[in-house]
Amino acid sequence: MSIGPMGGSSGMDINTMVSKIVDSERVPKQQRIDNERARIDTSISAYGRLRESLDSMKNLMTNFRQEKAFAARTVESTDEGLVSATATTEAIAGKYAIDVLQLAQSHKVASDVLSEDMKFGPGKLQVSLGDDSFDVQVGDRSKLIDVVRSINGSDNNPGVRASIINDVEGPRLIVASNQSGSDQQISINVESDADNPLKKLEYKTLEERAKALEKARLAAQEILSQPAPGQDIAPLDKSIEASGNQIPPSKAQADKGTDDSLSYGEQAAADGQAALDAAQAATLLKPEDRIPGWTKTASGTLLDSYYSPAPELDEKAIEKASDVSGWSNAASGTLTDSYVTPKEAQAKLEAEQARIEEKAATEKAELQEKVKTGELTAEQAKDIERAKLDPEERERLDKIDKAQADLIQAQQSFDHYSGMTEVQAGQDSKVVLDGVAQLSSKNNVIEDAIEGIDITLKGKTPKDKPPTEIGVEYDRNRVRQDIEAFVNSYNQFYQTSKSLAGVDPATGQKGPLSGDSAVRNADSRLKSVFSSSVEGAPVNLKSLTEFGITTTRQGSLEINYDMLDRQLNNNFDKLGEFFGGNNGFAKKVEDAIQGITGFTGSIRTREKSLVEQNYRLADDQSALDRRMASLESRTHSKFAAMQDATGKMQSQLGSMMNALG
């Protein structure tokens, strides 16, 4: 509580007097709280240091408990500049010879020197990388830099990078794959006019051009070998129908339908035979069935005198009979009147064919004349001529035109290629392992080349040098370092606990945890584990002493490195049986430390108790501050009242003295 200076007229320093009175009341109590708080903070810090050293040892034991800690591998290479390798715990120890035949590299192509002011387009680039492809549209009068930006900026670009190289003779376009490997080949197809400079940016190998030419040739050959639809004249029966004549159907046709597989002569013979059969059958019919107008009232005389008339042939029928195979006199005159012989039909067909050809020749001559005079273009004349064809024939001719155009373009591409050339082949890396096994990869890292071993290739093996040898061994040095770290960790804990719980012999000063049983119990539990045997461990690996780890007279641990190295060299594959598992040495140490530093452990319990004491001290401090503030206020009020009374008395005394004169 701050109070301004008072008592100026009386000569009294009230603030100083009040402060001394309050301090005399506060100092003893504040000193007790401060001392207690310092003790608690020191103890908490000491327990923290002790717990950290124990937890560090526990973490080491957690690593030991995992059997893979003893399966770590080291890899050495006789030439790190050519081959390096890494090994997992699955790798089998041994030595392997690696002969690097070739390194993986990405595909790269380059254009010829281009003019600096060259303008491209319009057109389209179809860029392929392996099985993926994307299109790049090139606008009219585009520059080379525009093409580069379009390739690199395409959202569908699978990994193609374009750049411009400024050759001493002029700029070149370089297109490269971001991915190495033989299956990541670049291909660039250009769709544009033949005279478009964009053709210079095309890239196709000689093999691809040859395949494209062969494909176009086969496609053209296939189309041209197909029979043209509608080339033969309309079927004979349709021509006859067009002339107004009708062929009466035979009985077989009436019953089963016309057999389209029969020739015209064969069909006529069949019809003649059918007529003959009908005539012969008529003679076997009963009178009522064969005599027109027959009734039962007819006399026997009528029946006796009636006979069926024999069919007669007129001169026209006799003339036709010689043209018809299988002709029979049973054919009626009516049939022969309407019957068209093959000779008659052939004559009509030839006349019709001549008329059609004459008309077609006239129309073609007229179109050619219009092309010569410029009235029509050749393309327009072709369209007019084809418009007269049926859709099927027109479609076939369009296919032939396209096949011929593709064939011409493929031939020109093969004969007069002016596109980009390969400057670096895309290839896989290849190595020979131990002189027999061939391995490859898309990049220069061959994963699991040997089980658990990844090989990184850095250079090709020179012809005059032997293969690089890599050696895979157990990482004994790492385990040795881990055992050293464990021993050092315990010794650090031991020294820390000794300084915190002991007494300095030189000064006689006690440590902050002096006399604390938790510290003694922690060390006792650990020493008990160190001296015990591990059940299930190999005969010669039952305890720490068999690793050369023993306790000194001072209480710390020390290592006999001769014994330790002998165990690492001779029994490395058995170390996991001692340290690992749920019943191994590492688990026992973990459990012992967990009982000390765990949530319910002795050190953790001590820390929680100290924290609660700190909370109580904070409450005591708050209460003391409130009492001292109240005391200061009361004391200041009393001195102020006393000063006021003293002032009044001095004033009255002065008045009296003046009156007495």
Strand order of the largest sheet: 1-15-3-11-12
Q: Regarding quaternary structure, how should these chains be classified?
A: single chain
Low-confidence stretches: 1-9, 232-276, 278-285, 298-303, 330-334
Instruction: Please report which band the strand proportion falls in: under 5%, 5-15%, 15-25%, 25-35%, 35-45% or over 45%.
Output: 15-25%
Kindly name the structural category.
alpha+beta
Number of strands: 17
Principal-axis shape equals elongated
How much helix is in the residues? Answer: 40-55%
Distance between the termini: 45 Å
Mean of residue pLDDT?
79
**Count of separate DSSP helical elements:** 19
Q: Biggest β-sheet: count, sense, barrel?
A: 5 strands, antiparallel
- Based on CA atoms alone, the radius of gyration comes out at 58 Å
Descriptive terms for the model:
alpha+beta; 5-stranded antiparallel sheet; 4-stranded antiparallel sheet; disordered N terminus; 19 helices
Describe the protein in words.
- This protein is of the alpha+beta class and 661 residues long.
- Helices cover 50% and strands 15% of the residues.
- The protein has helices spanning 14-65, 144-152, 206-225, 236-242, 251-256, 264-282, 287-290, 300-305, 315-321, 333-338, 342-373, 378-387, 391-415, 476-501, 517-531, 561-570, 575-579, 585-597, 602-660, and strands at residues 73-77, 83-87, 94-102, 106-110, 123-129, 132-138, 160-167, 170-180, 186-191, 421-424, 429-433, 437-441, 445-450, 453-457, 468-474, 549-551, 557-559.
- The strands form five sheets. Strands 1-15-3-11-12 form a five-stranded antiparallel sheet, with no helix packed on it.
- β5 (123-129) and β6 form a beta hairpin.
- α15 runs antiparallel to α18.
- The longest helix is centred in the C-terminal third of the chain and has 59 residues, at 602-660.
